[in-house]
Amino acid sequence: MDPISSSPHVLIFPLPLQGPIKCMLKLSECLCLAGLEVTFLNTVHYHHRLLSCTDIQSHFARYPRFRFETIADGLTEDNPRTGDRVMELFDGLEAMTKPLFREMLTSGSLSSESRRPVTCIIVDAMLIFALDVAEQVGIPLFYFDTISPCGLWTYFCLPKLIDAGELPFKGNDLDAPIKSVQGMEGFLRQRDLPSFCRASDLTDYQLKFAMMEIQQVPRARGLILNTFKELDEPFLSQMRSLCPNLYPIGPIHTHLKTRLNAEPTLPPPSSTSLWQEDQSCMIWLNAQPFKSVIYISIGSLSMMTSNQLMEFWHGLVNSGHRFLWVRRPNSIVGENRVGPIPKELLEATKERGCIVSWAPQEDVLAHPAVGGFLTHSGWNSTLESMVEGVPMLCWPSFVDQHVNSRFVSEVWKLGIDMKDTCDRVVIEKMVKDLMDVRRDEFLQSAERLAKLAKQSVSEGGSSFCNLKCLIEDIIRLM
Ligand code: UDX
Q: Which EC numbers does the record give (predicted)?
């Protein structure tokens, strides 16, 4: 049999946001390396950004059976697509992308009349509409949930929380313990649940969306997760009772790097950034002492107010530590209202700081000069930090980030949870704790988990085997 015509064709469709696009591109490359045909469906807006900020097109040109396709996201081109307007994106996807997706699969560019039939679809679990479309056209669908499994498990427990009367919250004590999330009793508080649980009633849009997501996920052929068995087994075994075909294949960004170590002739992984990476920070890092720098980034969607910006800035400067700070364009609410910057902040920043608008984050975290990460606890950032053994100071904004930061501090012992606080005195103290006072304690756990993470994607490791199993299951669908 001709091996080319006998290989499956996988359609990959990420949620159009930085984190999911990155995860799905990494997965696409893993599948291409296994000889599968892959179509990567990206929204028009983000596809243009990806092409203008990276060399992704030439990187994937080496895989003759890979191709990009694009689809509209239902937003006007002048929509800023910022974190505070993310719900507009979901409305746009439902109103415009869903019918276009159906049309693409039934009579358009992905229908079997126009090209090789699609064997299966892998979509982000938040694109819940895709399952109905897939069922209508008779194509098996796998969900890839790119948020954290501990966060996802709290979604699965939402009905229990409601039945037990723990949701909506009673009273104003966000430190009140939560009892109805199996496996998290004893350390989960109201403030650690996903941000939308703070809504005053059950009609909240995001809460309803999460409930729809968990109803839909078990109907899929399988659920792919960006984690490794050794990290999340308690939740994975509980999820398996709802979704038996579970594939924990993470940390997804580490597979290609591990493979590159074993086969140095492979090209280095491509950037997947939707903003232009400023490489000058790597030169700056080269001149800094070992583990002396705290890296600050709040990811691709989180925002801070101009007040919070000043609290962070003072806290960082007063800690006396060196810092590399990503200030993403449009990430400061009311930036134009930031008054004159005090001279001592500007001088200290010039002396021991570096500010960029977007950094090559994985390289930054792997740099020997970086000793800590002040993060918004997005799941990709958390895993990237974990793989490099970098302790974290967590300042979560929304969705799973509140759960992740609690796990970082209470379960994995990788750092400090600073949620719901933004005060220069606290920031100064916590930066000092992270970088000096409690550094050895965090480094011990960080080194242990980094080793486990890397082992999981190495030949014979749990995620290596689960990825192989996913590929075999896809091949069996033909
Ligand atoms: C969103 C949600 O906020 C998060 O809770 C969920 O877990 C995933 O989706 P996002 O804000 O995109 O996350 O954060 P994260 O998941 O951490 O992903 C950000 C990605 O951007 C990381 O892979 C990181 O390496 C990359 N990044 C960030 C850069 O490459 N450069 C930067 O300067 C900042």
A: 2.4.1.-
